[in-house]
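Reopening this ticket.

The earlier resolution said the output was attached, but the attachment link was broken on my side. Pasting everything inline this time so it's all in one place.
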Amino acid sequence: MPNSPPPTRDIPAGQLTECLLWLLATVPVSRAQWIVAQLTERVERKRLRDIFAVQTMSENEVLATVGGNNFGAAALAVLSPAGAATLLAISARDGTNPSPTEVEAQAIRAVWDRLQAQLAAENVRFVQASSDSSDDEARLAQLGFQRLADLALMILEPAQWPKLPAGSLTRSTTENLDWQVVGDDSGRLVAVCQVAEQSFAQTKDCPRLGEFRSAAEIVAGYRESAQFDPSLWHLLSVDGEPVGCLFLTAHPVGDNGANAAIEIAYMGLLPAYRQRGLGRVLLDRAIDTARQRQASRMVLAVDRENCSALDLYRRGGWTEAAAETVWGFQISP
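Inline output:
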């Protein structure tokens, strides 16, 4: 093992291609597609300054070359809303060493330390990452990331949508209900954000996230996201009292954006209104919205330990398409 960590350098956005290609060659195809989508979004919004990359180097030359045998390591992250960032990929390899575990660990630590310093300079305090393999998990744990939740990624095809009349609430409760779309109403936006923040109390969906982010920061992340669309945010009231929220996101399919997939980004209820059939109300509203928008399908992610939510989705015909583990890292001020 080298006596000192390998030197590293920041990769400017204009020189990102080689680093990106090298990283993409080290991950599964599905993960590579996700990484490209994240970067494409920033490029389309002209937010190249939100992309951060670090790579090992030798004097003035990058070592991690596509298809080369030289030792190298690289890390890639993007800024997320509300003082957060997402680690897209971090990897290393040593073409000269048949058992490069210790060498790789040192190189990964070197690029991560430099990347972490970059993010801290941007006032990032929370970094999220995901894993879908034991190698990813071991790497993130070694860097000090904490496991937040094991997620089931689920889909619901139009053929499985319940046959509710367009614009209906649900038939699963007798509560005196009222729905409001947030739209451009600033008062409703404030109200729905307040309900969302309060709904994190005693949550069973990724509760460990609360150790890293306040409820206000989590909601701000949804609100400041590039995908935020207030016409897809809904406020549920019972007897005139706001009690629940539903945040949907449209993911366009094709060049014209038609037949987007609708994601249930978040839905929550105040603690006092749980176990009253209102979870089904929120879900029915989401499906009804997807139907009206002629969505191609519906998607969501749910914590595997949230058994009641999993049961609700499975009974509704949702099927698991993939799985991943979410991790968190707190950058000290």
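Reporter confirms the inline version is readable. The CA atoms of residues 140 and 327 lie 8 Å apart. DSSP finds eight helices and 13 strands in the chain.
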